[in-house]
Write a structure and sequence with these properties.
By secondary structure, the protein is of the alpha+beta class. 37% of the residues lie in helices and 16% in strands. The protein contains 17 helices and 17 strands. The strands form 4 sheets. Strands 5-4-3-6-2-1-7 form a 7-stranded mixed β-sheet. The protein has a 5-stranded mixed β-sheet with strand order 8-9-12-10-11, with helices on both faces. Strand 1 and strand 2 form a beta hairpin. Helix 9 runs antiparallel to helix 10, helix 9 runs parallel beside helix 11 and helix 10 packs across helix 15. The longest helix is centred in the middle third of the chain and has 24 residues. It is elongated. The N and C termini lie far apart (75 Å). The structure holds adenosine-5'-diphosphate (ADP) and magnesium ion (MG). Adenosine-5'-diphosphate (ADP) binds next to helix 2, helix 3 and helix 4. Belongs to the heat shock protein 90 family. This is Molecular chaperone HtpG. Keywords: ATP-binding, Chaperone, Nucleotide-binding. InterPro entries: HATPase_C_sf, HSP90_C, Hsp90_fam, Hsp90_N, Ribosomal_Su5_D2-typ_SF. One of its GO terms (molecular function) is ATP hydrolysis activity.
């Protein structure tokens, strides 16, 4: 009988290659992890101060510095946070996957507001080895009488721990960059990686190019040196209360974050604390023309730390046409995407965002109808795409869907059907190309009939969708089924010769023996003739074209 309980042991020889290869797909993630650790260290110190376990000296300017030294092949991340003692290094750094952040939160669970601490898994620090051959930690703890400690490791399983050199509270991480990370030894890629991940982190981040500083010193120019500017905005707009944000602030934020100098049409400020924490701003961009790439950009943040762009698993696909930021500290973002896809919590977030967007649109329709109409040409592809992709969204917005008529007015389907009941027999006539179909439009206008314009590429799938959802709505292109009110009663016998001649002609011309032609006479019309192709035949043709079959 074998009967034994025990704990599995993880050997770092095994886990290092796994971390390096699999944990993070992007090399540049080390920037995010180390700078967020630095910010965490500052947040923790501030919490200790609030809880009365430490007093932050006056005039403390909390900051993180990133120093690049191309000559020495090093990158340093320096903070003035709480630092570590030798024991803490042993516990938090040497024990891989023992997260100090978790430990800290557990220890101060009720007193500290845990939302603001970024770390979770206790693996972030080791992302340093994706770019560095050797990593050094030089740190001095906030604890009274602490001695500085230095830890060094070359990515193997051995480390050294000795007395350090720091004289001020905080931590310096030094990366001795190896071959795998050499792209980061230049100012531009390193700086733009910091900007990518850290633009909204909560403490000032400064970039220092040490080699440049040296050259400056050598040439000894006594120019007025400008006050160095942090790379980040520590108070992102989305964290402010919507009532405290001005229109100009929203616009400026949009310009800066999305580099889009066309003003957004309007925006939605998401601000939710319960049952989950979610903040963000979604902008409806102005689309210049139909051919412009409609793809927007939604940046996902976790506690002010940029995580990814356009995560389909969290944000409903149709919302990716918008531009915006979403900050959700509760999202388990280091786990795989397939997990996110199936996670109930993630679905709730996604539903919440969808609902907010629908609410905003219906609100605009009701309270600012004029603006709504003004925006419609820009937003309708988005609203239609959303309706196609998400039934819940469709049911919320279906009553505010409007259509531009050939008279330039905007009208809902319901009103259109009601207004044109007599002449149209409940059909909704539409135009796909105002120029090509101009003679039909003319004909309609002469007869005081109306049609709506559906000329966007989303419109074909969209009307099929509406037909499948709303039983009493049937669409017909303006050049397909003619309304009865345009037809003149005529004798079939009289039209027979014309029918036969035309049928033969078209059968030959189109090489189709089964083609059927029907001739009808119209009233009120000053055209010699016009061709009409039934709605079904045309849709069939379009379908087969789409799927690459030969024409009918
Ligand atoms: P996590 O951040 O998820 O806890 P990390 O691997 O990023 O995991 O870091 C492990 C632990 O090491 C942290 O929780 C923290 O206790 C400690 N640590 C890392 N960097 C610093 C730093 N700059 N200052 C103080 N402590 C740090
Ligand atoms: Mg971390």
């Amino acid at each position: 009988m074998i009967n034994e309980n025990g704990s599995l042991s993880i050997h770092s020889e095994n886990i290092f290659p796994i971390i390096k290869k699999w944990l993070y797909s992007d090399h540049d993630i080390f920037v995010r992890e180390l700078i967020s650790n630095a910010c965490d260290a500052i947040t923790k110190l501030k919490k200790l101060d609030i809880m009365g376990e430490y007093t932050i000296p006056d005039n403390t300017h909390f900051k993180v510095e990133v120093k690049l030294n191309e000559n020495n092949k090093t990158i340093q991340i320096i903070d003035n946070g709480l630092g570590m003692t030798a024991d803490e290094i042993k516990q938090y750094i040497n024990q891989i996957a023992f997260s100090g952040a978790e430990d800290f939160l557990n220890k101060y669970k009720d007193k500290a507001n845990q939302e603001q601490i970024i770390g979770h898994f206790g693996l972030g620090f080791y992302s340093a080895f994706m770019v560095a051959d050797t990593v050094t930690i030089d740190t001095l703890s906030y604890v009274d009488g602490a001695t500085p400690v230095k830890w060094e490791c070359d990515g193997g399983t051995e480390f050294t721990l000795s007395e350090g050199t720091r004289t001020e509270r905080g931590t310096t991480i030094t990366l001795h960059i190896g071959d795998e990370g050499k792209e980061f030894l230049r100012e531009y890629p390193l700086k733009s990686t910091i900007e990518k991940y850290c633009s909204f982190m909560p403490y000032d981040i400064f970039f220092i190019n040490e080699n440049e500083e040296e050259t400056k010193k050598e040439t000894d120019t006594k120019e007025e040196t400008e006050e160095p500017q942090p790379l980040n905005d520590t108070n992102p707009l989305w964290l402010k209360h919507p009532n405290d944000c001005t229109e100009e602030e929203y616009k400026a934020f949009y310009r800066k974050v999305f580099m889009d100098f066309k003003e957004p049409l309007f925006w939605i400020h998401l601000n939710m604390d319960y049952p989950f924490n979610l903040k963000g701003i979604l902008f409806f961009p102005k689309i210049n023309n139909e051919y412009e790439n409609m793809e927007g950009r939604i940046k996902l943040f976790n506690n002010q730390v940029f995580v990814a762009d356009n995560i389909k698993e969290v944000i409903p696909e149709f919302l990716l046409l918008l531009k915006g930021v979403i900050d959700c500290p509760d999202l388990p973002l280091n786990v795989s995407r397939s997990f996110l896809q199936n996670d109930g919590f993630v679905r709730k977030i996604s539903d919440y965002i969808t609902k907010k967007v629908a609410d905003k649109l219906t609100g605009l329709y009701k309270t600012e109808n004029e603006s709504f109409i003004k925006y419609w040409d820009d937003i309708h592809p988005f609203v239609k795409f959303g309706s196609l992709k998400d039934d819940k969204f469709y049911s919320k917005v279906k009553d505010i869907l409007i259509y531009k008529s050939i008279y330039g007015e905007y009208i809902s389907i319901k009103d259109y059907i009601e207004k044109n009941k007599e002449k149209n027999k409940d059909k909704v006539f539409y135009v796909t190309d105002e120029q090509q179909q101009s003679q039909y439009i003319e004909l309609f206008k002469q007869n005081e009939m109306d049609a709506i314009i559906l000329s966007h590429s989303i419109d074909q799938p969209f009307i099929s969708h509406i037909e499948s959802q709303e039983k009493d709505v049937k669409f017909a292109r303006i050049d397909s089924d003619l309304s009865d009110s345009l037809k003149e009663d005529s004798n079939e016998e009289e039209l027979k010769p014309a029918t036969e001649t035309l049928e033969n002609l078209f059968r030959k011309a189109l090489a189709n023996e089964n083609l059927k032609v029907k001739v009808e006479s119209l009233k009120n019309i000053d055209l010699s003739s016009m061709i009409i192709l039934s709605e079904e035949s045309r849709r069939m043709q379009e379908m087969s074209k789409m799927y690459g079959f030969a024409g009918l």
